[in-house]
Design goal:
224 residues; Leucine rich repeat-containing protein; 24% strand; 12 strands; LRR_dom_sf
Length: 224
């Protein structure tokens, strides 16, 4: 906390980030002056505005976290060509398009899936991906993320919309070392062998799966 300017700095999983308050210019100036390249836009952080258009003047930002209960216009995020880490936690039914081609250096993405985000699949720089409510029936589109190391697929615990035909496409992710799919996510073909060789795996055991999580862990342990 900076008492003189009432500016809050948080130590996030991505490093230090400044909460953007009502006085946007003061927040941005503080971040620049102190060499902080992360910003947090959150209702709890006293951000009252309905868009993030101020980001068009924030080319220094490498980390952006948005936490919102209601709708917020995300158009402004596309100006962040230096963005490396993006986390969107928006409770409202958010279907806004995200053009990931605007973030050529993006390494980390955490967000709720939406149909107009298919440009994600061409984001070769991505190393960490967490997708909420991923409703595609297969993971084939993710196979091109050649640098992906951590993949977390989280479906809705309320609706049974988490059916995935197969996880076989993860075999093409040669750098993958952490793969997790939880809650109602269900792999229809039941083949868990693609998890063999992945250092850390987590999934809900199901009767039709070829292996339990514990069996996969044991196999991987022997291979180390």
């Amino acid at each position: 906390m900076n008492s003189n300017m009432s500016i809050k700095v948080a130590d996030t999983e991505f490093g230090p980030a400044v909460y953007v308050g009502r006085d946007i210019s003061a927040t941005v100036q503080y971040a620049r002056k102190n060499g902080i390249n992360g910003l947090i836009v959150a209702e709890g952080g006293n951000y009252p505005f309905a868009d993030v258009n101020f980001l068009q003047n924030c080319s220094f930002v490498e980390t952006l976290v948005i936490q919102r209960y209601g709708h917020i216009d995300l158009t402004g995020i596309h100006a962040l060509s230096a963005l490396k880490k993006l986390a969107l936690n928006i409770t409202a039914n958010d279907k806004q398009p995200i053009d990931f081609s605007c973030f050529p250096q993006l390494e980390v993405a955490k967000f709720t899936w939406r149909p107009k985000a298919k440009s994600l699949f061409d984001c070769k720089s991505l190393r960490y991906l967490r997708i909420e409510k991923f409703n595609k029936r297969d993971l084939e589109d993710l196979g091109g993320l050649s640098n992906l190391e951590i993949l977390k697929v989280v479906s809705s615990p309320i609706k049974t919309t988490g059916d995935i035909d197969s996880i076989k496409p993860i075999r093409s992710l040669k750098k993958l070392k952490d793969f997790r799919f939880w809650e109602s996510t269900n792999v229809l073909d039941g083949d868990m062998t693609p998890c063999i060789g992945v250092k850390t795996v987590a999934f809900k055991n199901r009767p039709h799966y070829t292996h339990t999580k514990e069996e996969i862990d044991e196999i991987n342990k022997k291979q180390q």
